[in-house]
Design goal:
Blueprint (H helix, E strand, L loop, with lengths): L1 H14 L19 H11 L2 H7 L21 E2 L20 H7 L2 H17 L4 E2 L23 H17 L3 E7 L12 E3 L2 H8 L1 H8 L5 E4 L3 E2 L2 E2 L4 H10 L5 E3 L9 H6 L13 H9 L5 H17 L17 H12 L3 E5 L11 E5 L36 H8 L4 E5 L6 H8 L11 E7 L10 H10 L12 E5 L6 E7 L2 E5 L13 E10 L4 E10 L1 E6 L2 E6 L5 E10 L4 E9 L6 E9 L6 H9 L2 E7 L19 H11 L3 E6 L15 E4 L7 H10 L33 E3 L8 H7 L16 E12 L4 E10 L5 E11 L10 E10 L4 E8 L6 E3 L4 E3 L4 E7 L5 E8 L1
Parallel strand pairs: 1-2, 2-3, 3-5, 4-6, 4-26, 5-8, 10-11, 10-23, 23-24, 24-25
Antiparallel strand pairs: 6-7, 9-25, 12-14, 12-16, 13-14, 15-22, 16-21, 17-20, 17-22, 18-19, 18-21, 27-28, 28-31, 29-30, 29-34, 32-33, 34-35
Helix pairs in contact: 2-12, 3-12, 5-6, 5-13, 6-8, 13-19, 14-19, 17-18
Protein name: Glycoside hydrolase family 3 protein
GO molecular function: beta-glucosidase activity
Family: Belongs to the glycosyl hydrolase 3 family.
């Protein structure tokens, strides 16, 4: 009778959905059982079809529910800078960028920030944080560098571990991303990162390993890219390192729309397909299971990893939304301010230009000082500087601009403002420049040619759409106002002939969805410009790919060998009534996306007169330079140079007011060589979040003594970068070669003997520090543990923080090793005149390297040099020890 009753109860339970948080009905709801017992019971109750349904994303940012068992659709949200996901979960606090947090070198701040992220997610009932990102700042051109923690794997690891712990202690699953070597946005969907095993193990994997083994992260997201020819979502070598070598028990999810197979992805360890629903489906997996190519136990393991993590986090036992936490959270807003104050870096300060003392008149000038707050025919709100663009973009409650912050910080001063030059200057030209054909029609005659019939490098239209949406773009088959005049094919490969009103294109697939163009195509535009006044006419061309521009039959711009993002301009003299014949040729170089844009402006339209007039009237000028969210965003990378006009304007302003402070907003280094030796002060604000204006003003006034230091190196010119020549220069091959190996970032500058503009670990303060009394001692010979102690003294007149950095150098090794590697740091607060002893512990990991031939980490006994300093190039104390 008892068995009959139990069978009847189970049958009824299968028919009626249960309430997940109601009184325990099934063992998987029983909180007294272990996670393993609960998930095993759940797996036993789910049908095979229900298990498969779980393995692909649902409504974009949800896990698929199991309604029969009362399991809801758990929610996921970007991102690295606060609750994002394209506004689907409402407005939220916009925190400073991850790169800003890294610049603080403050592990305690990372922990507090992680705890506040957890509150933001819990207030909205969101289960998964799709962050942090820990890819490497390999090159300054990386447009997502602001989402990551810089160029050094040790610094990144030390900062993300407390952040992840705090997020998960707050009841939210953290998702470390993008696994692995997804360090560029150029062609991220199709490019293969060609990297040595040693570089992988020493540079690109350590932050992921630390997240797994030290922080206990419960979710990992793959990269879009291939690694050594195999997509990350089905890269058995990478996934075996994650799950077998490191013992990762959580779930491995794809980035949005980057799953490329069912059988390989399933068998090699991908657990969750996100952003698409094409491969981990009943249609694809049931036949493979029936044929024995994928076993049901493989499916069970994926369910175990996904729901096991959810059960362990309490998602099955309580509502995720914590109604005691307000969505508009003053504590979160305050944390955004605190983090911003610790993430702004003082790079130059001659003649004690800073802090600003009792100014009467301040001129605030520049494109990042006061971004637009309304989109209209002229302005665009995408030019944000509180953060970068793409999936990380938060819709903030408010944003304090640099202009507003300075006005509030100096209420007794008169503050003047002008933009001077807009970062939208060229985009407006590309949209609005007027051309005509030889027949007088608006636009240019365009001919689209197929260079080969190979279309293998082009992804399916559906996947291109999915990936474009994931990057925040839309795929348009045509431009408004453009009219096709016929298409076909001739012996020269001509596919389309049409009239294009402008040249302002970004193609994520075939132009105009014309597959006959293949993966290699050439476009020629021809038309005329009628000069409306006597002046210099400046032509601008921006492209991802190769191009050439002829003006009146003379080759004016030649980027025919470019495989990268190439930006050029040239001026020609015109008289009113003149006609200029323009011919532009573009070859796409298999770029994804392919971009080509052309426009022009009269030199007299580039008017700095108001900016110069205000600068002359002011006691000092704060010039807000840099990039913005329309330039730095996922799906494409960005130039190292500042947008057109900024360098010119800085040089002009210096002539009328030499007391000029440059405040940079950008997600990394920019080219400053034209003016760095002429300006007395430079501050790098990075992307400082919604409170950035207040934080910058606090730094300028001295209310906050700057303490941040660079988590990356700033080169003098792009050609100095260790990645130069092996970043975006081989795009047609669909490969990027990490030929620098382990010598990336400061390691590479040291190896090549190149002096950077500003070195890794550099940052100034309004006070000064002295280092003394270095002591190095072995505390455990067997475990190879070493204690390094030294004294720091604040020798200046102000209280402040110093970030002491400890580097290790293996004096003699069987394999090439860097001249120095960061292995410890401490952020120390000192009152003026105060001294403190700092103690840093080193273990065996600080002295090991990865031996690729032996495929293991090795320790070579011998003599090691210990270097302690204020940056990677400012070493204050050195000592040696034999281990």
């Amino acid at each position: 009778m008892k068995n009959i009753f139990l069978t009847l109860s189970l049958a009824i339970g299968l028919l009626l959905p249960c309430n997940l948080y109601a009184q325990s009905q099934y063992p998987f709801q029983n909180t007294t059982l272990s996670t393993e017992e609960r998930v095993n019971d759940l797996i036993g109750r789910m049908t095979l079809e229900e298990k498969i349904d779980l393995l692909a994303g649902y409504n974009d940012f949800y896990l698929h529910p199991c309604e029969r068992l009362g399991i809801p659709a758990f929610k996921l949200a970007d991102g690295p800078l606060g609750v994002a996901s394209w506004g689907l979960f409402g407005r939220a606090t916009a925190f400073p960028s991850a790169l800003s947090l890294a610049a603080s070198w403050n592990k305690n701040l990372a922990e507090k920030t992680g705890a506040m992220y957890a509150q933001e997610w819990r207030a909205r009932g969101i289960h998964f944080l799709l962050a942090p990102g820990v890819n490497n700042y390999r090159a300054s051109k990386g447009a997502r560098n602001f989402e990551y923690f810089g160029e050094d794997p040790y610094l990144t690891s030390e900062m993300v571990v407390p952040f992840i712990k705090a997020v998960q202690d707050g009841g939210v699953i953290a998702t470390i991303k993008h696994f692995a070597a997804n360090d560029q946005e150029f062609d991220r969907y199709t490019v293969s990162t060609e990297v040595s095993e040693r570089a992988l193990q020493e540079i690109y994997l350590p932050p992921f390993k630390a997240a797994v083994q030290k922080a206990g992260v419960k979710a990992v997201m793959t990269g879009y890219n291939l690694v050594n020819g195999v997509y990350c979502t089905e890269n058995k070598h990478l996934i075996d390192i994650l799950k077998k070598d490191w013992g990762f028990k959580g779930m491995l999810m794809s980035d949005w729309a980057c799953t490329y197979s069912a059988e390989n992805a399933a068998n090699y360890g991908l657990d969750l397909e996100m952003g698409s629903n094409d491969w981990f489906t009943r249609k694809e997996l049931l036949p493979l299971i029936k044929e024995g190519k994928v076993t049901e136990e493989v499916i069970n393991d994926k369910v175990r990893r996904i729901y096991g993590a959810c059960i362990s986090m309490g998602f099955f036992d309580r509502p995720q939304q914590d109604t005691h936490i307000p969505t508009f959270n003053p504590q979160a807003n305050q944390m955004a301010l605190n983090a911003a104050c610790e993430g702004i870096i003082l790079l130059k300060n001659e003649q004690n230009t800073l802090p600003i003392r009792q100014p009467k008149v301040i001129a605030v000038i520049g494109p990042t000082a006061n971004p637009a707050i309304v989109s209209d025919r002229i302005y665009n709100v995408n030019s944000i500087v509180y953060g970068g663009g793409g999936s990380s973009k938060v819709h903030p409650w408010y944003v304090v601009s640099a202009l507003e912050g300075i006005c509030q910080e100096f209420p007794a001063a008169t503050v003047y403002y002008t933009e001077g030059i807009s970062n939208q200057f060229k985009p407006r030209l590309f949209r609005n420049s007027k051309f005509r054909t030889k027949d007088g029609k608006p636009g240019l005659e365009a001919s689209y040619y197929a260079l080969s019939s190979d279309s293998s490098a082009i992804l399916s239209d559906k996947m291109i759409q999915q990936q474009a949406v994931a990057a925040g773009r839309t795929v348009n088959s045509n431009q408004p106002g453009n009219t096709a005049s016929g298409n076909g094919k001739d012996e020269n490969g001509l596919i389309i002939r049409r009239i294009d009103r402008t040249v302002n294109y970004e193609w994520w697939g075939y132009p105009f969805n014309e597959s006959k163009l293949g993966s290699d195509y050439r476009i020629c535009w021809e038309g005329y410009v009628d000069a409306e006044k006597t002046d210099s006419l400046r032509f601008f061309v921006d492209a991802q790919g190769a191009y050439r521009l002829w003006i009146d039959g003379t080759l004016a711009l030649d980027a025919s060998r470019s495989q990268s993002f190439d930006v050029r301009n040239i001026a020609v003299s015109v008289r009113k009534g003149d006609t200029k014949h323009v011919q532009l040729e573009f070859c796409n170089q298999r770029s994804t996306p392919a971009e080509i844009r052309m426009g022009y402006a009269y030199q007299s339209d580039i008017d700095f007169s108001e900016a110069k007039r205000l600068a002359e009237k002011a006691d000092l000028v704060v010039f807000c330079a840099g990039l913005d969210g329309s330039i730095e965003l996922e799906g494409r990378d960005r130039p190292f140079d500042l947008p057109y006009g900024q360098d010119l304007l800085i040089e002009e302003l210096i002539k009328v007011n030499p007391k000029l402070i440059v405040a940079i907003h950008a997600g990394g280094g920019v080219n400053m060589t034209r003016w760095i030796n002429q300006v007395p002060a430079v501050v790098h604000a990075l992307y400082p979040g919604q409170e950035g204006g207040h934080a910058l003003a606090h730094i300028l006034s001295g209310k906050v003594n700057p303490s941040a230091k660079l988590p990356f190196t700033i080169e003098k010119k792009w050609e100095d970068s260790p990645a130069y020549g092996h970043y975006d220069e081989t795009r047609k091959e669909k490969k990027v070669y990490y030929t620098e190996g382990i010598f990336t970032g400061y390691r590479g500058y040291d190896e090549k003997g190149i002096e950077p503009l500003f070195p890794f670990g550099f940052g100034l303060s309004y006070t000064t520090f002295d280092y003394t009394d270095l002591n190095i001692r072995i505390t455990d010979k067997k475990q190879k543990k070493v204690t390094v102690s030294f004294t720091i003294t604040n020798t200046g007149q102000q209280d402040g923080y110093e970030i002491a950095q400890l580097y290790v150098h293996d004096i003699q090794s069987k394999e090439p090793r860097p001249q120095k590697e960061l292995k410890g740091f401490d952020k120390v607060y000192l009152k003026a005149g105060e001294s403190k002893q700092v103690e840093i512990e080193l273990d065996e990991d600080a002295f090991r390297y990865f031996n690729a031939r032996q495929n293991r980490w090795v320790f070579e006994k011998g003599e090691f040099e210990i270097l302690v300093g204020a940056s990677s190039r400012d070493i204050k104390l050195t000592g040696k020890i034999k281990i």
